[in-house]
Amino acid sequence: MHYHTIIVGAGPAGLFAAQALGQHRKSVLVLERNKRAGRKLLVSGAGQCNFTHDGPIEHFLECYHNQAKFIKKALFSFTNKDTMRFFESLDVPYQVFPNQKVFPKSMKSEDVLGALLKACQKGNVQIEYGQTVGQISIYDGVYTIETEEGKRYFSDHVVIATGGKSYAPLGSDGKGYEIAQSLGHTIITPRPALTDVRLRENPYKPISGVSVQNAELTLWRQNKKLTQYVGDLLFTHKGISGPVIINTSRWMEVGDQLTINYLYPKTYEEVRKEFSESLAQRGKEEVITFLKPLKLPKTLLQVLCQQIGLDEHTSCAQVNKKMREDLVNILTRCPFTIHQLGGYHIAMVTAGGVHLKEVNPTTMESRKQKGLYFIGEVLDIDGITGGYNIQAAFSTAYLCAQHLIKC
Q: 328-366 pLDDT, tens per residue?
């Protein structure tokens, strides 16, 4: 059978594009290598599916790093508010958390996936499961797709919506990059993003589960500052995590140094001056008591004191200049060296992908091959945590579908 459009991948981007085309009576086939759709979507947000964010759409542009210019048209064409209305129309009410993350009211990712499949069914979208695309060729404007299972399909348009490389056991193993390269596209080297940091020796292991709000992270490579970010920090049994780590992990490499300021927005200089003036005045008061007003977890303060060899029960009067400097340093410039980054098996998204200069941002069509489109995570687009990546999938899929509807 000859289709108007074949979509490779039944994740959020692929299913959203499919239902939009189906409702405009386009013949659509979705090819999915898994035995069911949306396996990665089902585990997003720990199975609760934070599918967008409730902040101003203008704020979204700050959340996609240097890819904002490319994705702007898509985001403004199908906004976060449009996403919320879309799911409400499919009987999936949502709730907005204080941090503006948006979840289905049921807190079940199955409801989000179910709504997408319901919309596809309504649009008579055909989904073939257990089909792994092996080769795509084009002759005289018609695409031929051959699967590793021995099937052959034909269409006027092909949409690649295969995702990245994160969570490979769920189907997103980088196959889309191979397809893109075979059709003449450049791939920006993929790497894990939205992942944690592992330490070679973890002196913070005893306080696994302890978190600090609004910590400032600075990333260094060969003594050169690369970036800074402020967010919550979480200590784990293997290292450090939390939004401040996860949202900067796309820039990190093994061997890089991190410094954490636990007292942000206070600076090293401000804390140094403050401690210089106040420590000596507190006389017999113990250091651990002196640090209490900082409102950091006591267990963290105890570990930090151990790190610099300072007995927490030492009186303030006994703290000499070197001890004071060490204390200020570890509170505002606490050092970490990256031994390992969490791999694709735990990274929430993939940084890198199909080169954006080779894709039209107003249609998602390839600039190299007419009738070929790329949407979602297969593109070199990755946002911070908070619903931005799934929103990018919906927005790019919408833009692509609107163009294909006119074809």
A: 999 999 999 999 998 888 888 999 999 999 999 999 999
Span 133-151, mean pLDDT? 95
CATH top-level class of 2-191+346-406: alpha beta
Q: What is the 3 state secondary structure string of 218-284? A: EEEECCEEEEEEEEEEEECCCEEECHHHHCCHHHCCCCCEEEEECCCCCCHHHHHHHHHHHCHHHCC
Kindly state the helix (H) or strand (E) to which residue 136 belongs, with its residue range.
Answer: strand 133-139
**DSSP character at residue 95:** E
Of 264, 290, 261, nearest to 277 (Cα)? 290
pTM of the model: 0.89
Rounded to whole angstroms, the Cα distance separating 292 from 60 reads 37
Return the domain boundaries, the chain: 2-191+346-406, 197-341
Extract long-range pairs of 295-301: CB within 8 Å, 24+ residues apart.
Answer: 296/212, 296/262, 296/263, 297/207, 297/210, 297/211, 297/212, 299/206, 299/207, 299/210, 300/207, 300/210, 300/212, 300/235, 300/262
The DSSP code sequence of 385-402 is TTTHHHHHHHHHHHHHHH
Burial 23-32 (b: 16+ CB within 10 A, else e): beebbbbbbb
Rounded to whole angstroms, the Cα distance separating 68 from 390 reads 15
Classify 339 as helix, strand or coil.
Answer: coil
